[in-house]
Design a protein that fits this description.
The protein is mainly α. It contains 5 helices and no strands.
Length: 181
Amino acid sequence: MANETVVRLIERRRKYEWPEAQLNFWLLIMIVSGSVLLGIFAYFMTVQHQFRLNNPWIFPYSIATGALTLLFVAIILALIAQRQLLPGLVMLGSFILFVLYLTGLIETSIQLYGPTNSVNYYCGLYKPASGVRDGEATLAWLETSGLCMDWKAVFSFYIVGSVFLLWMMVMSYQVNRDDFE
């Protein structure tokens, strides 16, 4: 009788412990950040189209960045549901989005606070006279004020998104090393 050797392979998966509260807060902020970028720049493109003007490259770029952010969050949620969220994948995706957000932040700051013909300059240019009851002037001021606030909101969410993506890279590194107490 021949000797039989049975080799049993044991597959061990490393289980990563993510801090739930921090991960949920991060997901919420990134959903809001991606949605703000997507919504506001889609609105800007609509306004540009209505006036038959060309779109600056930052408009479709920001729409793509917002859509990629929401796609990344959806992938993370799907991986969480399957209990397969890997820190390396999250770190890589966060880094790619961080570069996109930083590029958008730089261009938005140039457009908003640039040296010549900045958005902020035009925001302070039109002030309706006090006590005037002209409906068209009030409507024009409201529209201008709304566009200016949209630009400032986008600038703010580019900053928030960049900081939170940097935080996620650090948190992914800590999860990979089991550094959470």
